[in-house]
Amino acid sequence: MKMLKGILGGLCLCTAIGCTAPTSQKENTAAAEGFSQSEAVVKTIMERRSIRQYKPQPVNRDTMQTILKCGINAPNGQNKQSWEVRVVDDAAFIDGVTELYKKANPKAAEDPSFKNMFRNAPTVVFIANDPSYGFSQVDCGLLGGNMILTAQSMGIGSCCLGGPAAFMKSPEAAEYLKKLGFSEGYELLYCIAFGYPDEAPAAKPRNEGKVKFVD
Questions:
Q1: pLDDT tens digits, residue range 18-63?
Q2: How far apart are CA 51 and CA 112, in angstroms?
Q3: How far apart are alpha carbons 52 and 118 in whole angstroms?
Q4: Share of the chain above pLDDT 90, in %
Q5: Which residues contact 213 (CB under 8 A, 6 or more apart)?
Q6: Residue 62: is it exposed, middle or buried by C-beta count within 10 angstroms (0-12/13-18/19+)?
C-alpha cells in the first residue's frame, strides 16, 4: 500500500475534473467559478482529504459512471489496461460481509460510530490487477488516483482501503469475493470507499524535503 499511496497522492492531473466535457466547456466552468482550468485542478488536488465518515445515501450511479470513466482513462503501460473494477452500492452485500468482518474482528464493532468495514461508506469500488504484468499495480494506482480526484471535484468523498481488501481475500469472506466476479488470474488489490462526506478533516503535513531537483 505504501507504493499505492504515493501514486495516488501525486498523480492524475489530466482527468481530475469533468473529464468527459469538451475543453471549452471545462474552461467556461472554471472561469465562472473564478479559477483558470489549471487552478481548478490544483485546488481539487490540494483540498482532497481521506474521508472516514459518510452520509448514508449511496453515490448516484450516473455520478459514479463519470468517476469510473475518468478512472479507466488513466495512463497505463502499453495500454494493457491491466485492471478490473467492480462497484458495490448494495447495502445487503456491504452489511453481509461486514457481519463476517465483525466476527473476525469483534473489537471493531465496539466503536459506536462503526457501521461497516469500508469506513461506513455506502459505495465501494474494488480494484483488481493482473499480476502477470509487472506494472499492473502502478496502473491500478493511476486508475484510483483519477477516480478520487474526479470524485473530489464533484463533492464526493473517498478513502483508499487496504485492510478491507485483505479481509475480502480471507477464507471468511470467500463467498463475497466470488460475487465480485473478477476474471481468472486477476487479484483484488485494494478498494476505494465513496460517499457524501460527513466530516471535514484537516490536511496532514507533508514532508517536502523528500522532493528534490537533481542538477
A1: 454 433 334 444 544 688 888 888 898 888 998 999 999 999 999 9
A2: 17
A3: 8
A4: 72
A5: none
A6: exposed
DSSP secondary structure of 156-184: -EEEEESHHHHHHTSGGGHHHHHHH-PPT
Contact at 8 Å (CB) between 123 and 64?
A: yes
Whole-prediction pTM: 0.83
Query: Which residues neighbour 102 within 8 Å (Cβ) at sequence distance 6 or greater?
Result: 108, 109, 117
DSSP code at position 28: H
Cell 463519470 found at: 66
Cell numbers standing for residue 203 = 490536511
Rounded to whole angstroms, the Cα distance separating 118 from 104 reads: 15
User: How much is the average pLDDT of 173-200?
Assistant: 97
Ramachandran class of 79: left when φ > 0, alpha when ψ lies in -120 to 50, beta otherwise: left
Is pLDDT larger for residue 34 or for residue 157?
A: 157
- Please report the pLDDT score of residue 100 as a whole number: 97
**Which segments of 57-214 does DSSP mark as H helices, in order?**
61-72, 91-104, 136-153, 163-168, 174-180
Q: Which residue has the cell 470507499?
A: 193
Rounded to whole angstroms, the Cα distance separating 35 from 27 reads 9
Q: Which of 52-61, 82-91, 124-133 has the lowest mean pLDDT?
A: 52-61
Residue 117 in 3-state DSSP?
Answer: coil
